[in-house]
């Protein structure tokens, strides 16, 4: 997510008409194969948590605008992509994270962090995150590397 226009497009894609462009069919899995009424389906479609993933220095600079879009509930920094997208002229990843985490423009939005361990999750919560996404793929890959090393 780079700016408020992309955030607006995201929210519209996740909402049913008249608030968005998401399809409205009650017969697939999301409608429990026709066992949910249209009103129940519509109500469930409004109960969506929208977290904008910010992956560039520019996105972090515009975080307040992005989370200010009606329908965006919070933000999460894609730290690996942030590191890959920054240039030598940009602040360090740590500095960028510190800046966005103390930006008053994002204070009322949900802060979500990625964590690869219980310790990292605890640190995120202690540091102000309201939601932690456990990076299961990273945990599994670390376990696989340990297993591979043990077998020689």
Average pLDDT: 91
Compute the separation of the termini in Å: 42 Å
Widest sheet: strand ordering: 1-2-3-4
CATH architecture label of one domain: Alpha-Beta Barrel
CATH topology of one domain: TIM Barrel
Structural class: alpha/beta
CATH H level, superfamily name of one domain: Phosphoenolpyruvate-binding domains
> DSSP helix count?
8
Helix content: 40-55%
Beta content = 5-15%
Low-confidence stretches: none
Q: List the helices and strands in order.
A: HHEHHEHHEHEH
CATH class type of one domain: Alpha Beta
Gross geometry: globular
Instruction: Profile the largest sheet.
Output: 4 strands, parallel
Total beta-strand segments: 4
Radius of gyration: 19 Å
């Amino acid at each position: 997510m780079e700016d408020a226009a992309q955030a607006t497009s995201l929210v519209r894609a996740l909402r049913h008409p008249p608030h968005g462009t998401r399809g409205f069919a009650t017969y697939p899995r999301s409608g429990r194969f026709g066992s949910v009424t249209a009103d129940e389906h519509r109500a469930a479609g409004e109960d969506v948590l929208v977290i904008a993933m910010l992956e560039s220095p520019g996105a972090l600079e515009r975080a307040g605008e992005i989370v200010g879009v009606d329908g965006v509930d919070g933000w999460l920094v894609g730290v690996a992509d942030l590191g890959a997208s920054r240039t030598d002229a940009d602040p360090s990843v740590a500095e960028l994270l510190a800046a966005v985490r103390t930006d008053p423009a994002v204070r009322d939005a949900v802060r979500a962090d990625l964590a690869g361990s219980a310790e990292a999750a605890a640190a995120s919560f202690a540091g102000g995150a309201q939601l932690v996404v456990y990076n299961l793929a990273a945990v599994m890959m670390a376990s696989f590397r340990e297993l591979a090393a043990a077998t020689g």
